[in-house]
Amino acid sequence: MYAADAANAPFVLDEAYRSAGMAAGAMLAGWLSERALDTGLGIPGIAPLAGLLGLYVGRAIWSWTGWAAGPLIVGVPVLPALVGTFAVCTALKLVGLGLTGVRR
Prior knowledge:
Layout: H1 2-37, H2 46-65, E1 72-73, E2 76-77, H3 78-100
Antiparallel strand pairs: 1-2
Helix pairs in contact: 1-2, 1-3, 2-3
């Protein structure tokens, strides 16, 4: 039983490294997008969550275009992740503008 666990150890570590790199890249993209657009929402942790959601939104948007994914970092395409994160932060910016109400 121990030999079976030891045989899978390199795969598990590679997968953990890939997942951690993907999460770190998504959080960095979310932070950059939130800083650039300034969503106006004072919710702690909104930038990393926007980055993680942007990974999936960006892949969906990019698949509609049919373009090449571009460079990969830790197995994650960089351009679709940035596009998705900017799309999520743009939606959050619109929500933030709606929450502030009408200016008189």
